[in-house]
């Protein structure tokens, strides 16, 4: 039986059996939330998938329209306008992430194949306990990092969720001009609806649909974060394994020599033996192939992640700038200060996590360069020395993730985002001071 177009597209032409194998592991590794970003869709529930997809498209289209329109008519209240801008930016970011992953579904499948099957496995058979220790440390780090998006969502949800209650307790009156423009303050997020929401039933339905939409956006962002954490930690792990394999190259070569020739490995004084140098050559070639596969894996991931990271940092810059302005404004309600403090915290922590992981990959690439430079190659024959130079040359370029393929993402980039937002705050304050002096 011929595979459906869905299988052929999402499996990159590998077939149903391979797609289902990778899908099962991907859902286990990346959590079932990967479905929300449009990859590894189930093939045995086509009807349910179509219903969910059609409903999500309708909800996204509806709220994209009304949130964008509300941004236009809510300019009389800067605080509310800033809040709507934040929600609208997240909404467009969610749409953008879904679109990127849907368009690059085949690349994501190939990337996950490498993730599942391993970037490279050393054929000489030597597995040092350090390798397993590195894997255990990587898994422990991933478990901690995955808690970060959940913590961010929890803190932000509490901060934003408290706002309607605090407004009600403090009897905050909505801006009259906004009510004239049709902004509905019965909604959890004040927006313009094209219909009346007068009775309790209509308000309940309206807010339930809004919560469903918010859940779609939040799950999309969390799923993208988990994907980023898993794959970037895998790149970091592979580089760490490569570094340790280079540090242990003498031990690997002696083990290979004993297994291949059945002889006692030479001492350090006799490392120039031809057969032993052949073993050194084999180990170095394995390291070169491993490094080439890491570069390929990194470039595949970077091509997928770069647009999403760029969109996330763009959103972060906008939200940080507006949030700092609102928090530092005079006569701002405590509910607005709490809500914007939560959103600023969320955006900063998310940008910090991405920058830190990219910085970690870059730092380990420097460790790889130092490991190659520190090889005891003095007694090796000429062709092995050339292999060392080949590896050394390949490690000169640092591996950093990038945004839209333009800017490298590291802790310096994170600092630049914060400085840009702070500069925007200073510019607004300076403008207000000039207006007061006139």
Automatic annotation (TrEMBL):
TM annotation in the entry: 46-66, 78-101, 145-166, 209-229, 301-326, 338-357
InterPro entries the UniProt entry points to: 7tm6_olfct_rcpt
Entry's family note: Belongs to the insect chemoreceptor superfamily. Heteromeric odorant receptor channel (TC 1.A.69) family.
Transcription in keyword set: no
Keywords: Cell membrane, Membrane, Olfaction, Receptor, Sensory transduction, Transducer, Transmembrane, Transmembrane helix
Mode of membrane association: Multi-pass membrane protein
Domain of life: Eukaryota
Subcellular location: Cell membrane
Organism of provenance: Adelphocoris lineolatus
GO biological process, one term: signal transduction
Name of the protein in its database record: Odorant receptor
An example molecular function term from Gene Ontology annotations: odorant binding
One cellular component (GO) term of this entry: plasma membrane
């Amino acid at each position: 039986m011929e595979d459906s177009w869905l299988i052929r597209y999402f499996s990159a032409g590998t077939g149903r059996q391979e797609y289902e194998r990778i899908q099962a592991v991907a859902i286990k590794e990346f959590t079932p939330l990967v479905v929300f970003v449009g990859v590894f869709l189930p093939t045995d529930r086509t009807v349910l998938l179509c219903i969910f997809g059609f409903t999500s498209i309708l909800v996204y289209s509806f709220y994209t329209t009304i949130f964008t329109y509300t941004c236009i008519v809510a300019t009389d209240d800067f605080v509310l306008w800033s809040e709507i801008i934040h929600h609208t930016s997240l909404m467009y970011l969610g749409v953008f992430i879904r679109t990127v992953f849907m368009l690059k579904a085949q690349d994501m499948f190939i990337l996950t194949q490498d993730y599942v099957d391993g970037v490279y496995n050393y054929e000489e058979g030597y597995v040092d306990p350090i390798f397993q220790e590195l894997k255990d440390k990587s898994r422990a780090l991933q478990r901690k990092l995955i808690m970060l998006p959940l913590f961010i969502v929890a803190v932000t949800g509490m901060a934003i969720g408290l706002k309607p209650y605090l407004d009600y307790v403090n009897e905050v009156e909505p801006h009259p001009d906004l009510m004239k423009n049709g902004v509905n303050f019965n909604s959890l997020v004040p927006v313009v609806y094209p219909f009346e929401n007068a009775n309790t039933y209509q308000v309940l339905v309206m807010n339930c649909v809004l919560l469903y939409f918010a859940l779609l956006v939040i799950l999309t962002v969390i799923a993208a974060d988990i994907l980023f954490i898993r794959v970037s930690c895998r790149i970091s792990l592979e580089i760490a394994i490569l570094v340790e394999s280079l540090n242990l190259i003498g031990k690997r070569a002696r083990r290979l020599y004993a297994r291949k020739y059945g002889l006692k490995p030479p001492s350090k004084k006799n490392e120039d033996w031809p057969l032993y140098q052949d073993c050194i050559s084999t180990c170095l070639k394995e390291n070169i192939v491993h490094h080439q596969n890491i570069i390929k894996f990194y470039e595949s991931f970077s091509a997928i992640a770069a647009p999403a990271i760029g969109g996330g940092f763009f959103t972060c810059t906008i939200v940080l700038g507006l949030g700092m302005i609102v928090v530092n404004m005079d006569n701002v309600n405590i509910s607005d200060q709490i809500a914007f403090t939560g959103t600023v915290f969320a955006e900063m922590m998310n940008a910090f996590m991405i920058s830190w992981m990219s910085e970690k990959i870059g730092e380990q690439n420097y460790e790889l360069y130092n490991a190659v430079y520190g090889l005891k190659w003095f007694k090796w024959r000429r062709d092995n020395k050339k292999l060392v130079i080949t590896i050394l040359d390949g490690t000169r370029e640092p591996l950093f993730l990038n945004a839209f393929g333009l800017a490298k993402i590291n802790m310096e980039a994170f600092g630049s985002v914060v400085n840009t937002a702070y500069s925007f705050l200073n510019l607004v304050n300076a403008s207000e001071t000039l207006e007061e002096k006139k």
